[in-house]
Amino acid sequence: MQQFQDQSFPIKIPLEFANLIDKNNPNDPLLKQVISVNTQHQDAFSASPLADESNSPVAGLIHKYPNRVLLIASRVCAIHCQYCFRQNFNYNEHDAVSNWAEIEDYIRQHTEIDEVILSGGDPLSLSDEKLQSLIDKIEVILHIKTLRIHSRSAVVTPSRLTPDFIKMLNKTTLNMVMVLHINHANELSNEFAIAIRKLSNISLLNQSVLLKGVNDSVPVLSKLSLGLFDLGILPYYLHLLDKVNGAEHFLVSDEDSVKLHKELSKKLSGYLVPRLVRDENLAFKTLVT
Ligand code: SF4
Questions:
Q1: What is the DSSP letter of 152?
Q2: Closest by alpha carbon to 195, among 224, 169, 166, 226?
């Protein structure tokens, strides 16, 4: 029996996600992502493993790669994933919406930037009005060609994908990419399937985190890739765990991860095999492509 931990990152589970959990299964893969357990601290784990703030020349903006910047569009998430590397992020000092003037100056001065990524928290926690206003401001910067939205809310609260929201994204003049965060095929509800198919003007990709006891097996990852593809979503990244305190029990060793990935590659067509990567602060290190 797992022991619940004293919470610094409070449990938050939206009803739509809770409804997908098998209440009779204490090892349900969705449940495991949102409850915290007492873990044995390991030296390699820390409060903020990626130190995002050190790559932030302007509050609310993270600039790690020459051609793209990531904006902290919101501090709020629909769900609290207990392995989240940003659970201790200093959101008070990083709010792209309130610091837009400075951010816009920075982006305009750096004409090598052609892509803006909205992240958080989850950008879908903003109202449509706030999101539209942000998109409008980005659209008029001539050297920005692509807008990417990172979201887990889309799958854990598919009711957020309203007709108005879908219309807003489908009509933007920028190249639109949505990178979803889905770890297990059980997260793919009928409501999500119906809504996501309507995002016809958008490239849809997925990133997963490899989590022990959740998705660290070939059958589970295969089923996820096939389920995503059915919905027009390409598996993009399979991230190794970022070593944040409290997530020690989710760690899959490098050796096992590479082995698993090789087995997955034998089973699936190449375009269904996500790249196995580790975020190392300044760059993604691809372990296997
Ligand atoms: S939705 Fe993303 S940012 Fe929010 S808690 Fe989960 S992993 Fe972290």
A1: S
A2: 166
Dihedral in degrees, nearest 10, Cα atoms 93, 94, 98, 104: 130
Centre of ligand 1 to C-alpha 181, Å, is 9
Q: Name the phi and psi angles at 20, rounded to 5.
A: -90, -5
Atom 3 of ligand 1 has which residue's CA nearest to it? 121
* pTM for the structure as a whole: 0.94
* Total count of domains within the chain: 1
**Which helix (H) or strand (E) segment is 209 a member of?**
strand 203-209
Nearest to 82 by CA among 156, 158, 13: 13
Domain membership of residue 3 (yes or no) is no
Q: Which residues line ligand 1 (CB under 6 A)?
A: 77, 79-81, 84, 86, 120-122, 152, 181
Q: Region 53-82: what's the mean pLDDT?
A: 94
Domain that holds residue 149: 15-288
The tokens describing 230, both together, are: 């059915």
Task: Answer yes or no: is 2 within a domain.
Answer: no
Digit-coded pLDDT (tens) for 128-175: 999 999 999 999 999 999 999 999 999 999 999 999 999 999 999 999
In a domain, 9, yes or no: no
What CATH number did the domain enclosing 96 receive? 3.20.20.70
pLDDT digits (tens, 9 = 90+) for 198-219: 998 899 999 999 999 999 999 9
Q: Are 282 and 66 in contact (CB under 8 A)?
A: no
